[in-house]
Amino acid sequence: MRHTRPATLIGLALVALVVGFVLDAALVATGRPSIVPPVVLGLVLLAIGGIVVTMAMPVRRVARGSRTERVDPYYATRVLLLAKASSLAGALFGGGAGGVLLFMTTRGVGVAVGSVVPAVVAVVGGLGLLVGGIVAEHMCTVPPGDDDDGGPGAQAA
Predict the structure, then answer these.
(1) Which of 38, 94, 129, 132 is exposed most, by the fewest CB atoms within 10 A?
(2) CA 70 to each of CA 42, 63, 82: distance values in angstroms, whole numbers, following the listed order
(3) Rg (alpha carbons) of the chain, rounded to whole number
(4) Is the dihedral of CA 119, 9, 143, 80 positive or negative?
(5) What is the DSSP letter of 108?
(6) Residue partners of 69: CB distance under 8 A and separation at least 6
(7) How much is the pLDDT for 44?
(8) Where are the domains of the chain?
(9) Confidence grade of residue 34 (pLDDT, cut at 50, 70, 90)
(10) What's the pLDDT tens digit per position in 72-94?
């Protein structure tokens, strides 16, 4: 399994940014209220990013050889898949909240601080989930062994 490519994450974040901006603009244009993400969303995304990194720590210890006991391969696979999903979801959430924030700040009218702060927290939470997913994915990478060619395409656990 290959690492998540940065181009994929950037592309997802940009698409989500455009969708968030256009959706918020369409809502306001039709007379509906603007999207204001709850502050709890950003905090939960940050917490999930931390949990994913914490779950990857036992896999990293075994992969680096600092621990002699074995890790269940199914656990390692689940953590790796959760890390990949977290990085993708973080790009989507961060990009979508970024689009909402961009719409709020580019409007010609003043925006209440009570609307901007939750959007900023959601963007930070999305980025935290993205970074947590990437870090956990790299923690689950098995270093090349003696029988491998040692190339840049090291396999993930």
Answers:
(1) 38
(2) 35, 9, 20
(3) 19
(4) positive
(5) S
(6) 62
(7) 96
(8) 6-139
(9) confident
(10) 889 888 999 999 999 999 999 99
CA 155, CA 109: separation in Å to the nearest integer?
51
Chain mean pLDDT for the chain: 87
**One-letter identity of residue 134:** I
Grade residue 147 by pLDDT with cuts at 50, 70 and 90.
Answer: very low
Could you tell me where the DSSP H helices lie in 30-112?
39-64, 73-106
Alpha carbons 20 and 101: distance in angstroms, whole number: 9
Exposure string over 75-96, b if 16+ CB within 10 A, otherwise e: ebeebbebbbebbbbbbbbbbb
- With beta carbons less than 8 A apart as the criterion, state whether 134 and 12 touch: no
Cβ contact 82:49 at 8 Å:
no
Q: Is the Cα torsion angle 67, 71, 75, 80 positive or negative in sign?
A: positive
- Cβ 60 vs Cβ 140: under 8 Å: yes
Percent of the chain with pLDDT over 90: 59
